[in-house]
Design a protein that fits this description.
There is one protein chain. It contains 2 helices and 23 strands. By secondary structure, the chain is mainly β. The chain has a domain at about 1-70 and about 85-115. It has a 23-stranded mixed beta sheet that branches. InterPro entries: Toastrack_DUF4097.
């Protein structure tokens, strides 16, 4: 086992394989990227509290030490002592678990699953595969070009899913909006979008094979697909294509908008 107690800007190049990553930080910025080559850790800025980096039997851990349980006012006065900016490069097949109290998290190009848990943060997920989940109490989640199975949740904030080819997408916001853009979803796609207080906007390819169920309890549903059936003011149901997958959206208070994505648009974007 190799351990570093990092108290100043440092660049570490690890010897030996890394097949698991765990990050637990109080505050700052975390940037994790999957790439070829040896694993590296770079701390570009750090506050008064050091960070411990441990490499043990293929597991890489980057953590803050014991965090005092200060009352609310003292926390806001002293939490900057824990601020740290960390960039990590690991092999693309490394599963990652990231926890942060406040700050920002960016994860890209990992293919074996990612879990992010944050209290107050902005989370950005780019080009991931496997089981991908992110839970934020206060803050936003932006997920771009994801595959695999995706679960996103925020209590107060916005969720954006774009260019997704994931088989499963579950997104839930208590107070905030959800935007979901599906790019050629698989035949067995399962998409569920839920918000208590906020808007839902979904865009589907016009050649999608999906069963559709949209319901706004206290709001309205707007659909760009004329073949779907309207059941009252707040419910739209029906089938697109073969209906082998499904998309369901529920809003307690807010509007649900279903947009249509022409297939020709994808051809133009590729060109």
């Amino acid at each position: 086992m190799t351990t570093w107690n990092v108290a100043e800007p440092t660049r570490l190049e690890l010897k030996g394989e890394v097949n698991d990553l765990t990050v637990r930080l109080v505050g700052g910025r975390i940037n994790v990227v999957g790439a070829d080559g040896p694993a590296r850790v770079e701390v570009s800025a750090i506050g008064e509290r050091p960070v411990t980096v441990t490499h043990d039997d293929g597991t890489l851990r980057i953590v803050h030490g014991a965090v005092p349980k200060w009352p609310g006012l003292l926390w806001w006065l002293f939490h900057k002592q824990f601020r740290v900016d960390v960039s990590v490069m690991v092999p693309v097949r490394t599963p990652a678990t990231l926890n942060v109290v406040s700050g920002s998290v960016v994860v890209s190009s990992l293919r074996a699953g990612v879990h992010v848990d944050a209290t107050s943060a902005r989370v950005t997920l780019l080009g991931l595969d496997g089981r991908v989940s992110a839970k934020v109490i206060s803050g936003s989640v932006e997920a771009l070009t994801l595959d695999g199975e995706v679960e996103l949740e925020t209590v107060s904030g916005e969720i954006v899913v774009a260019d997704s080819t994931a088989r499963k997408v579950h997104a839930r916001a208590i107070s905030g909006s959800i935007t979901c853009d599906l790019d050629n979803p698989p035949a067995d796609t399962d998409v569920r979008l839920d918000t208590v207080s906020g808007e839902i906007t979904a865009r589907l390819r016009e050649d999608s094979d999906l069963r559709v169920h949209l319901n706004a309890t206290s709001g309205r549903v707007i659909s760009a697909f004329p073949g779907l059936d309207r059941v009252g003011r707040g419910t739209v149901v029906g089938q697109l294509g073969a209906g082998t997958g499904r998309v369901a959206a529920n809003a307690t208070s807010g509007t649900i908008t279903l947009l249509r994505r022409p297939v020709d648009l994808d051809v133009e974007e590729t060109a």
